[in-house]
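Lecture notes, continued. The same structure-token format from the folding unit now serves as the input rather than the output. Read the line below as a description of shape only.
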């Protein structure tokens, strides 16, 4: 469902629901991938990328406290993902590395 939208806040909402409904039978790898995708959307949204597409690029600026909160949530997600990196594909590992770098620069 989250893949059908580019809007980061909607994606975050979908990923929150997916994580809340996750069951052990769904697998650790799949759960890690959802955490990784949520971390990506959290970081992009906190940095001002709304995800809206169109003739004009819509960017927003957030208060520092909000950004810090979103970055903290993304860090927590990446901490969940890190122990499962060996099970993820190269594209997911590359995204993980990119997100870690962004968070270190903030």
């Amino acid at each position: 469902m989250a893949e059908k939208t580019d809007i980061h806040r909607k994606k975050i909402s979908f990923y929150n629901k997916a994580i809340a409904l996750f069951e052990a039978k769904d697998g650790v790898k799949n759960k890690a991938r959802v955490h990784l995708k949520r971390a990506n959307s959290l970081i992009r949204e906190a940095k001002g990328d709304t995800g809206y597409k169109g003739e004009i690029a819509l960017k927003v600026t957030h208060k520092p406290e909000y950004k810090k909160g979103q970055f903290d949530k993304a860090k927590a997600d990446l901490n969940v993902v890190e122990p499962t990196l060996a099970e993820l594909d190269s594209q997911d590992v590359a995204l993980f590395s990119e997100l870690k770098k962004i968070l270190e620069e903030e």
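Point for the exam: Residues 2-105 form one domain.
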